[in-house]
Every structure is written in C-alpha cells, then in structure tokens.
Amino acid sequence: MFTKRLTVCFMLLAATTAITNSGCFQAAGPSLGIFSIPIPVSPYFQKIQEDKYHIHERYGRVPILGPATNGEVIALDPPSDDEVMRALERADAVQGGVPFLHEHQRNNVQIIKEKIADYIDPPRVYPLIGPAQLHHAHYKCTVYYTDRKIVGYPTPHTLVDEDAVEVIYIDHNHFHMAGDPDLGDNNTHY
C-alpha cells in the first residue's frame, strides 16, 4: 500500500516537473507567466482584421501621380472584380452565413463596369501634399448572379434566385501634382 502511494506521488511529481519545464513554461530567462499561453482567436474576428488590412493595403490609399498634361486626362484602371465583390459583401453584410444553419452563396457571377464620370478639380493646396489636383472617376458596377440560400433550421430548404442583380457605385480618386515637380516650380495659377 505504501509503495503504491509512493509511486503515485512520484508520478505526480514527474508530471508536474515535465509540464512546468517544457513548452511555454520555461524556467530560464524572463517569463510572462500565465500570459505566455496562446489564446485561440475566433475565425470571425480574424477574418474581420484580415479584410480590414486587405482593403487598406489595396484600396484605402490615394496615390499621388505626376502633373496632368494639357491633353485629355484619363482615369486609372477601373475597379477590379475583387473590389466589386468586397463592396457588394459590405453592402449586404453577407459573408457566407453559418454552415448547416443558414448559408448564402453567389454563383455564376457576371460583372459589368461602366464609367459614369471622369473629371479633375482645379489645383489647390492640400496639407502634407502641396499644390495638387484631385482626379475623380465614378463607376457603376452591375453584378448579375444566381443567389442561393440554404436554410437548415427549422425546416431544411433551399431558395434559389436565378436572376439576382445588384448595382454598386465605386469612386476612384487620386491626386495629380500641380506644377513641374522636377524643377520645383509650383507657380500655378489658382
């Protein structure tokens, strides 16, 4: 009986030593204690942060281009399909749904992009930029798709809309420097 208790105590001591001296609980060097244990993050919150960074990296900044020439000023590239679909998801607040409970799918997507307006403002002085002109380009993006909603509770059924249409308006703005940037001549007439 005594040897059985001694064996159990020895095993508990060995397990405690193994746990506290491995992985996140290292004895040497500075330690964060209980805060060194990783905390799982929900995929929902992770996706929100990834989308926020993706939009900031690709679409959230306004480029500053060289001076506009005297000829016709043409806007940069039209919105990408990714930008249109992300704007559509933000407008509808649809991110796919909850599996086996309520799912939302967009299939057979066709996007038509039309330029509505393309104009440039007169030069003015912008803080941190200097004399510049703001170039506006407005696009109307019509998205044709098959809308499929799969409902799993309380009664499983599927709703299909073959002719779903959404219209998204996207604005692209960028700056053109005023004057000659190579010569440092910013003597433009305001």
Question: What's this, in brief?
Answer:
By secondary structure, the protein is α+β, with helices and mostly antiparallel strands. Helices cover 25% and strands 36% of the residues. It has a domain at 58-180.
Account of the 3D structure:
Keywords: Signal. This is Secreted protein. With 190 residues, this protein is of the alpha+beta class. The chain has a domain of 123 residues. Helices cover 25% and strands 36% of the residues. The chain is built from three helices and six strands, in the order ααβαβββββ. Strands 1, 2, 3, 4, 5 and 6 form a six-stranded mixed beta sheet that branches.
Please, how many helices? 3
- Reading the helices and strands in chain order gives HHEHEEEEE
N-to-C terminal Cα separation, in Å?
A: 99 Å
Low-confidence stretches: none
Strand content: 35-45%
Helix-residue proportion: 10-25%
* Net shape: flat
Mean pLDDT: 82
Q: Main β-sheet: number of strands, strand sense, barrel status?
A: 6 strands, mixed
Class per helix and strand makeup: alpha+beta
Please state the CA-atom Rg, rounded to the nearest Å: 29 Å
Query: How many DSSP-defined strands?
Result: 6
